[in-house]
Every structure is written in structure tokens, then in C-alpha cells.
Amino acid sequence: MSGNISASDVEATLKDFWASRPRRPHDGRKIAGVAAGIARRYQIDPVIVRVAFVAMALCNGAGVLVYLLGWLWLAQSDDEVSAAEALLGRGRSSTPTALTVLLGLAVIPATGFFVDGGFTMVGGVLLSIGAIYVLHRGRGQLNRPETTPAFGMGDEVSTEEQATARVTPPAWDPLGAAPFAWDLPEPGATAEPVVAEPRPVRRRSRVGAVAFGLALVVLAGSLVSAERWDWFTAPHVIGLLVAVLGAGMLFGALRGGGGRGLIWLVVPLSFVGVAMTSLDLEGVDSDQVGASHAKPTSVEQVQDRYSASIGEVVLDLTGLPNQGKVTTEVEVGLGNAEVTVPADADVTVTCRTDLGAVQCLGQESEGESRHEEVTDHGADGPGGLEIVLDVRSEIGQVVVSRG
Length: 403
Known about the structure:
This protein is an alpha/beta fold. It has 11 helices and 6 strands.
């Protein structure tokens, strides 16, 4: 298997999965046979599949939704089509119509749970789809269902025409002794040039445009709804958008290759969603966006707190007198926090960042959940101005240095 995966490879793999999707067996099932069918199709231990479903169920119920969809869209081993397809009149299924309707109704609250579950559940569903993709790409050739080629009337007419196309022998075989070779050209005849058939023009799919339009409608509706319901927070709205765009990509792949360009929206939105749900930004309640600079010249001018939601805070304390005590906090949601202290001040500082880099009076570190605590009395030793600092950036850089 090649390490390079293109959009066409993903499309071909998903289409092949749908065409040869697992069937739910009657034996070995625990509930509806979804896990057993997947395990039998790809020849793996069914316990592994069941554990995966349980793990995905812990992602705010993602495994429950995926299992319900498998129950609806994976046919039983002796059925023509799945329960959902039978409800649409595409074939026969042994699943009672009433049960199919109930399963379809059960998907609705499960989908609501999907939306309410935030990005954790969206990520669980996407992770499930990714696992199915990897499994089919690596083991899709195993235990494939048998297919019977179907021939239409056009094929029969074509075969008959080929058998009866020539009823008189050519000049080189006047006695008709070799009818099996009558389709050979006459000796000395000039072969007609072969004209290449024009390449059919591929119709451009509208799946991507429709999915993008639906995403805009969802975004507009969410912004309007946010004024009345507190549920429509930024992480939840991003989860909705990723769900809509991801569904468009999946539908486009199954229907012939539309919606590939949506990946350039899904990936950055996913990163933003993960960052917003995994990092706690509630401590930053300022509405300030941009750069904030402050240089107090007296102890009384030092504020208890300097903060910004997005941007940077630069606090210069080198103009303070050499006596007294100040205590302050610097907090930034997304950006940098920089504090400069006098060369001889007694400084006790805590530097923190959830994701970024810390340079705290000579102590340096970078990565996730960085925390440094430093007490430094300066070049002249204890005595003089005393400064107590708490400097924090959720995502960004924290720098505390001497001037």
C-alpha cells in the first residue's frame, strides 16, 4: 500500500466499500450483527470491532449513531438490500418495516446528541469513518461478496451481430473452408486508420457547491439562534459546520467524486474546533482584541490585571521606583504576554501557557501545558521593589525578562 493518498484514492476506496459493504450475519451477533458483519467481511476478531464501538460510544455517543446507521444500511446475509433501501422500494429485506421506521426515528435523537455532543462527538464519528477507510484500504480484498455480471439487451444484440455480420466468404477463401478467419482483412488491402474516440466530458459535480451552501445556511441560522439560545457557542457551531461539510464529502465520494475541495475547509475548522474545546479560555473575559502596551511610573498606576482575548499585552515595569510592592496579573487568550521588570527588583513570577513557549527570567520551555515558577532577587540581592506576577497565555508565548 502506497504512503501517498490522493483524493481519487479516497474516493475509489469509499466507493468500493459501499459496493462491497459488509452484510450482517444471523449467527454470532449480539444485537443486530453490525460488528459481526464488519469482522467477518475483513476477517478480524469481532471482539476488536465491539471494543471499538464501545470506545466510540464514549465519545458522547458517536458509536451509538454509527451502529444505528450500520443497522439501517447494511443488509442481512440472506437479504437483497438493506432495511433502509427496502423502505425506499429498492429490493427485499427481512427487517420489518415497523422496525426500520423505529430505527430511522432513533437516528434523529442520536443525531441531535451528535450535535449537542460538540466537537468530541463530531471527532468520534469522523474517527469511525477514518477507521473504516483504513480497514477497507488494507483488507478490502478479503472475503468480497460474489457478484454476477449482468448483460443487457445491447450486449445480446452485439453478440448476435458479430456472429452473423458476414455471410459470404472473402475472395481469399472462395470455398468457405475457414469461416472462423473471415474477419481478417483482404490481402493487400489498406488498413483503415483507427480514429480515437473523443474522451467523454466529465460533468462537474454540484455536491461541493450544495454542501458549501448548506454550511452557509447553518452558519447564518446559528448566528441568529445564538441570540436566543446559549447552546450555539463557537465550538458547537464549528462542530455543525464540520458535520455538514464532512457529510457532503462522503456523499460526493459515494456518488462519483464531488466535494473534494471541501477538505480545505474541513481541516482548518477541525483544528480550530479541537483547540477551542481542549483549551480553557473562560479565564479571559476581556473583549479587547489587538495590542495593549502599558508602562506605569508609580506603584499606584499598576493595575490588578492586564488582559486581552486576541492579541498581545506588553507591560513595562522598569519605570517604577525602587521601593514598594506591586502585584498584578497578565492574561492573554490567543497571543503573546510580555513583561519587563527592573534589573534590581525582587520578583516572584508564575509563567504559564497551555500551548506555546515560556521564557521566565532564564527558565525556558515550550510545548503543551508549560508552567514555570521563579523567584529572583536581582543582581543586588534581596531588598528594594517587590513584584509579584502571574503571567499567562492560553495559546502563545510568555516572556518575562529584566530591563
